[in-house]
Amino acid sequence: MFDYLVFIGRFQPFHLGHLAVIKTALAQSQQVILLIGSAEQPRSTRNTFKFHERETMVLSAFEPADATRIRCVPLVDILYNDVRWVKSVEDAVHSVTGDNQALKIGLVGHYKDRTSYYLSLFPRWETVFVDSYQGISATPIRDAYLLGEMPTEARVPTSTIDLLAAFKQTSDYQALQDEARYIVDYKESWSHTPYPPTFMTVDAVLIHSGHILLIERGHIPGKGLFALPGGFLDPDETLFNACLRELREETNLGLDDATLRAAYRSQRTFDEPHRCERGRAITQGFYFELDASTPLPKVLGGDDAKYAFWLPLAEVRSDQLFEDHYAIIDEFLNVAQ
């Protein structure tokens, strides 16, 4: 018998497969710690429900005696650094268990696909493997729901159905449905190609005296969210030149090439497979640091950007940023320190 079993997931939404794993965990441990991932992301077609909504789905699916044995803890995404992500998981678990080394702690889950490799990252914790429950997956449930189809009790608990029905009446749902339809149409436009295309994009992380240059997106997907200046690579340009072009088109930044090239510090590929809902998109990030002794350059939104602005780094929040842009900023800044 374990003292704690840890179940890591996004639960977007909570379904009967998740329920089966937790029931197994409750039978083999005193308490279950549910680490709910993507806890501080803005709403999107991939991250539809907030932490507290998913917590409600989970706890409402159990009788009070069992619900009191389940602790839901938010887990922030760290997409490009497994070492930091493992530490964040351990910290989240220790926020419940304390530092008692005598406790028997384990992981519970099933090997779904290559994304389940995380189960091997915690050698100190024994893993309890659970078979997939009738092949149920959250992604097709969520995709169908955002296009108007409610899931049935054959796939999700009634607690999930209740929350989904209520959320369907909100303006947030309508905005996400518009995005879901846009994404369906977008994918349909290249559905007859021999293979799904892989898109190449660029993003600029431009820092000046503790500020970062961001834009507000003017169109779906991600309308109203903050984002890094960037966009798609043109056929006749290098990645670096594409970055400079997008930077100017979206922010009207008046700095010349020589100044930007002098400010260039590093470059990195960001390729998390689900980073873009429109399709497989790999972005090349470029990190720049401008001379802090000079004034903040004036900027003005252009092209796809409704606004361009300088934001103090201390005010950058993951729940405001489009796709994986917070993770990109976080990675560059952690390396720069």
From TrEMBL:
GO molecular function: hydrolase activity; nucleotidyltransferase activity
Keyword Repeat carried by entry: no
Cofactor: Mg(2+)
Occurrences of domain Nudix hydrolase (ranges): 197-337
PROSITE patterns with a match to the protein in the record: NUDIX, NUDIX_BOX
Keyword Nucleotidyltransferase: yes
Record Pfam families: CTP_transf_like, NUDIX
Keyword tags: Hydrolase, Nucleotidyltransferase, Transferase
Domain of life: Bacteria
Signal peptide span: none
CDD domains named among the record's database cross-references: NUDIX_NadM_like
InterPro entries: Cyt_trans-like, NUDIX_hydrolase-like_dom_sf, NUDIX_hydrolase_CS, NUDIX_hydrolase_dom, Rossmann-like_a/b/a_fold
Gene3D superfamilies: HUPs (3.40.50.620), Nucleoside Triphosphate Pyrophosphohydrolase (3.90.79.10)
Alphabetical list of NCBIfam families matching this protein: cyt_tran_rel (TIGR00125), PRK05379.1-2 (NF003786)
Protein name in UniProt: NUDIX domain-containing protein
